[in-house]
Amino acid sequence: MSVYLDNNATTRTDPCVVEAMLPFFTEQFGNASSAHAFGNKVAGAVKQARRSLKALLGVAYDHEIVFTSGGTESNNAAILSALVTQEGRDEIVTTSVEHQAILALVKELATRGVKTHLIPVDSRGRLDVEAFRWALGPRTAVASVMWANNETGNIFPVEDLARMARASGALFHTDAVQAIGRVPIDLKVSDIDMLSMSAHKLHGPKGVGALYLRKGTKFRPLIWGGAQERRRRGGTENVPGIVGLGKAAKLAAERLEPERVRVGALRDRLEQAMLQNGHCMVLGDVSCRLPNTANIAFEHLEGEAIVHHLNRAGIAASLGSACSSGSMEPSHVLSAMNLPARSLRGAVRFSLSRETTVEEIDLVIRTLSDIVAHLRAMSREHANPISDPAHSRS
Question: Is 323 a catalytic residue?
Answer without folding.
Answer: yes
